[in-house]
Amino acid sequence: MTRIINCSPSTCRFENSWKMLQSLTSNSCVRLIESHKSTWYFLFLVLGYILYLIFGAVVFSSVELPYEDLLRQELRTIKKQFLQENQCLSEERLEEFLEKALEASNYGVSILNNASANWNWDFTSSLFFASTVLSTTGYGHTAPLSDGGKAFCIVYSVIGIPFTLLFLTAVVQRIMVFSTRRPVMYVSTRWGLSKPLVAVVHATLLAILAASCFFLIPAAIFSSLEENWNFLESIYFCFISLSTIGLGDYVPGESFNQRFRQLYKVGITVYLLLGLVVMLVVLETFCELQQLKTLRKMFYLKKEKPQDRLAILEHDHLSFTSVSHQSNSTSLKGDKIKDVPFVSGPVLASPGGDDPMIN
Prior knowledge:
Order of helices and strands: HHHHHHHHHH
Distance between the termini: 77 Å
Helix content: over 70%
Largest sheet: none
Strand content: under 5%
């Protein structure tokens, strides 16, 4: 059986109005979202970045906090045992000594056996420090001690960092022609393959080659030259350095009686500069991929098209002429001129014919 629902005319009109209102609201919301799509994508990007920061903080805190607590307990135990074995030394004097030693260590001066063996401000060490400053790596194990050195570091960095960016940009731009653009174009033209596909394969192979030459092989060399570094710590140092994070917890060439320390420091400086150039080439290669370009455009504001600008200019021009016509009509009415014909539309020429906008 078919159920027939009878409703009064007022009720039917209310339901129809409600459905129409819902339809208009949904359509307006859809139009609002579509017209501001890049803004919504950008807001989601900001929210995702904040969540990623919180995720990193939670993981680091849960992983590292127990080790910090264990190290604190160990230090308290060692300090208490040392004071018990040396009762002639007060805790205040020991605190003063440790404070001086830690303050000197922050400037790269150690009280251990390597205090007299390794100098932080000979020529090769200074060259290494200058490279870390200009590349914004900044390990932090060495810092200027004098006021003159600190003032010169500011001036040197203000001039040197933009100069370094200009230098790296010029070098990467020239390398990209021979390492990325020409090979991709050659393979795509020679074998008739899709250029985006060839670019993805080329970027992957280039990243693998760069990781092998500037992470795996140098890590094996560092682990053999540095007595206290294993392979994982060496890879960690390579990544922290070439990504310009520069935490400073691992610095090569600082161990006691390091062999060929001067030459070693120069080699590390060259490695950092070359590695930074290669990392920029790899990043630029990935940034030129069509897939990443499409992804980036999702978060950018749309550029104003020339047609839109032309429409705006035409609208402004018509508005100006309309206002001019209204002012002319008002002045004519004020003079009580009866024989002025009525014109339905904006006047596109002034009475004198010398309107600069029209000309």
